[in-house]
Amino acid sequence: MCSTEKKFDEYEEYLTKYLQNTKDLALLLDYDGTLSPLVAHPDLAVIPPKTKEILQKLAQVWIL
Description:
Blueprint: H1 3-19, H2 49-61
């Protein structure tokens, strides 16, 4: 298990409790340099597969 997966697992229970009575949720994230490595031009940014997988897991957990 990579450290990113471990962090997701640790926060899943916390977020579930914290957001259990939340009706609406927005997760706003920067892309170039945050979700993907910083590159010379934002159009060249590519999200790493593991990051994409984690975001997809989050999307499944919090589908409203």
